[in-house]
Structures are given as structure tokens and as C-alpha cells.
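ok trying this again, last paste got cut off
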Amino acid sequence: MDYSIFDLFGLLGAVGLFMYGMKVMSEGLQKAAGDRLRNILSAMTRNRFTGLLTGFVITALIQSSSASTVMVVSFVNAGLMSLGQSMAVIMGANVGTTFTAWIIALFGFKVNISAFVLPLIGIAVVLLFMNKSKTKSIGEFLIGFSFLFMGLDMISTHVPDLQSNPEMFAVLKEYASLGLPSILIFCLVGLLVTAVIQSSAATFAITLIMCSKGWITFDLACALVLGSNIGTTITPILASMSGNVAAKRASMGHLLFNLLGTVWCLCVFVPFANMNAWLTESIGQGDPNALYHYVTGLEATSPEIYNHLFDNSLPQGHEALSNIAAMQMSVSFGLSIFHTTFNLVNVVIMIWLTNVYVKIVEWVVPSKRRDDEEFTLKFISRGLLNASELNIAQAEKEMAVYAERVGRMINMAQTLIHTKEKSDDFNKLYSRLEKYEDISDRMELEIAHYLNRCAEGRLSNEGKLRIAAMLNIISEIESIADSCMGIGKILSRKIQSGVDFNDEIYSNIDTMYIYVKSAMEMMVAQLHDVENVSGKSLIDSYNKEREINNYRNSLRSANVGNINAKHYEYQAGIYYMDIIGDLEKTGDYIINVVDTLRDNFKKATN
């Protein structure tokens, strides 16, 4: 088998195209998704059992667990699905992939998704030139989806052609009679082969060839299939490399699910494999162990027939050919039954441990920063609303979480001011600030949509007034996020103009930030207990607002004198006052929230 350096570079390029496709697809999803897709996915994954069914159906339809798990990783990366929801869908995908094995065993074919890639690109390019931004985003999603599967198909093309060169595995015959070590060795081989060729179906075909040549027994063939279950997780892991921490956790959950399933199966491997051989024989498909015994017997008693058998020189209709064809069907059925029973038992055991999986994955893949966490609502359920008055309490909790999240943007914006201009750190922090502003917009829409749905229920007058007040509050919180992003844009214009701040400006800005952050902390604390906001807390908030306004006025008055005294350039003074003005507006948005709490939450005036 020839494998050149050009094949290697082709493989690297294919992996790159695959990962780029994942990135573009995820970004397109984030832009195009909206509430409708998020709500559809939420309905499909409302509990672990509907999620399981969703994963099974999607994988059975597209006949690729790699494709379905990559889509799940993309949904998690885009914030459309939580980590817990993704675990159930991935479990269902593992069961769904057995459907593919049965299709191959019964009919000998598999759907080739890559055949639809070029028509999809043709449609996507048309959408990219449409006027509506949402339509363009759908086109971007389709382009990413197409690139992803083009990359996946090219990976299969550029990896070593192991399926057509089974003689590479002849050496494994020497390790087929070691007992338990043989099982472990062949499980590892199945893992590596599937990880390299990116196709559990191809591993299945290689396994069948090895059985047909009499190199391995049925139980070792089962070990190869078992290993391929772990090897197939490499595809979503590759996809998650260009995603956020949530995507990495989803792919790690897939790996953990298959890994732990393999561990329990290895503990009872021999009786489990024997049970599947018995099941195959019981349904009238013959003994899957018979092929190994027949071929090895043929090799010992009739070496000439054995040799002619595999150089395709036996005449058509020869007894050995018909016998082996029938026995190959038995092995194919036996391996499909093994694959199916393993995944069914695995899901029946693991479905009850979904929450444990989530905790383990969060521990294994920790968040480097708090703001790396994926967009998700913490308290609001996206399921059906059935008790609107009670749902308002959940929205109040979510509102406080929203305020906390936006509060982090104030710290980000301050850090950005002191970050070296045009550096990688500046660019990364600016991108994080943009990401948070986008998340803020989406959270506002989610909470507002939820509150509007609550308002459609049977509510008391007090409940209706509270919802109106909460809609006002989340609007003000989103305005705080806009102000933080506004400071980032001011800094960007300042860099383009080549303007520098001196220590005096930095010191005054930091002092203003002390006031604003203190006001924000007071507001967040009040939102965490809206029913019991004390009169003292309200007075403290109003005093802090006066301090912010007074300090802004004093800095504005001093600015002209400082420019005339050459403390700093005129242009620097303009950007400096823009930042101070944005911070003062942030204080205004904060006090607007406090006013709403005072006027609309009865106990707030106590």
C-alpha cells in the first residue's frame, strides 16, 4: 500500500476543512436560529427519553452517528441545546447507529450524505445573496454543513486504504489465542482503525474479511466492533476543537458514554458474546462461530482450496464459496446483534445517570473562565407553561442571573481599557465583550418571550403589573450591556486615531468605574431578593447615582481646563469624555431598574 507525503497533507487539509465547516455551521446557526429552532429542539429534548428518541430517529434517518453527534455538538456550541439535553440525544444516536449496521447486513448499502453536498452549496450561495440577514445566515449554515461533510468524506479518501489491504492485519492472527489479552488487543485495534478511517461501517467490513479468512473467532470480531464504538467518537471531538467549552463537553460526554459502556462489557465479555451467538442461532441465521471453524479446517485439510479461495480462482458455484457466503451472513447478523444489544443495554443503564455524566464532564473539561460558559437559561423552563403565577418567580430568578452576567461586562470593559492596544489579548477580550453583548441580546429576548407567554395565562392584576415591570427591567439591563460594548467601540476608534491616554485619565476612569460597579452590585443584590428590598438599600442606590452624576460633572468641567493646560490632547479628551459619558449612562440604567423595583414590587418600599 503506497501512502505518500501528498496523501498526508491531503488528510491534514481534509481535517482543516471539516473543522472550518463546523465553525461556519455553528456561527450560521447562532445567527439564524431564533426562538423557533430553539423551541423545537427544546420540545424534542424536553426530558431524557424524548432526547433519546430524537437521537435515535435522526441517526437512523441519516445513517451516520458521526453526523448526528457532530450536529449535536454544533447545537450545543450555538447555545441551542444544554449539555444535559445533548447527553440524551447522543445516547439515542448510539442506538440509532445500529440501524445502519442492520441496513448494511440486510441490504449491503449505506446512505452517502456527501452526494448531496454540491447541490446544497448551490442553494446556499443563492441564499447568501439575499437581502434578509436571516436568509443569509441560513445560507452560511448550509455552507458550513456542506464543508463539514466534504471534509468528512475527504478524510475517508485520504486515510490509508485499510479496507482494501486486509493483509496488513494478518499479523494479528498471532495474537488471537491469548485469552483476555487478545480481547483487549482487538478492542484497541477496532478503536484505532475506526479513529483513522473515520468509519465504523468500514471497520465492520474489515472485521468480516478477517473472520472469512479464519484469522479471528466471532468473539474477537465482537471485540473489534466494541472498540469501534470508542473510535467513532473522534469525529465529534475533532468538530468540538473549533467550538466553545460547551461543545468540548458534549464531545467528551460522547466519549465517556462509549468508554464506560465498553468497560462494563469487557467485564462480562465472554458470556455476553456467547449470548449474542446464541441469539443469532435462535433466530435461524446459523452459528456465527461456524465460519472460523470451517475456514481453519479447510486450511488444515485442503490448503489448495483455501489458497484458491482468496485469490478468487475457484470456479463459480463451488461448494466452499456457497458455504462461506452463508456463514458470512451468520457472522454479519451476529455482529449486528452484538452491536445492537450492547448499545441497548448501555442506554438502559446509562440513561438514568445523565445528570451524573454532566457533572463528570464539567469536572473533566472545566471552564477556564466563568464567561466561557455556554448561553443557557438557568431557571426558566422552555417546556409548556401551566402555572403562570408560579412561572413569574422563575423569571425573577433568571432576571437576577441575567444582571449578574451583564455585570461581568463592566469588569471586561474596564480591563479592556488597560489592555495593550493592538495586542492578541486586546483582540481576544474585545471578541469576548462582543460575544457577551450578543448573549445579552438573546437572553433579553428569551426572558421577554417567556414573560409574554406567562402574560397569556390567567394572571391576577398584580401579576400582570409585575410582568410589565420585569419587561422594563430586562430592557434596562440590556442597555447596560450596550453601554459596555459602546466603551469597547470607543476604544477601537481611539486606537484607529492613534490617541493615547495619560495616567490622569486612566485614574479618573478607574474612579468612575468604582462608583458604577458599586451601584451595579447593589442592583444585582436587590434583584436576587426583589420581595425584600429594604428602604436603606434604595437610599444607598440613589446616593450612589448622585455620586456618579456629580463625579461626571466635575470631570466634564475639568476637561476643558486640562486640554488648555496641555495635560492631554484635545482628541484624547473627546474619547475620555465619551467613556465617562457611557459610564454615567450605565448609572442611569441601573437607577431605572431601582426605580422600577421601588414602584412595582410592593415590599420594596419597606
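PB: full thing came through this time. The CA atoms of residues 219 and 270 lie 7 Å apart.
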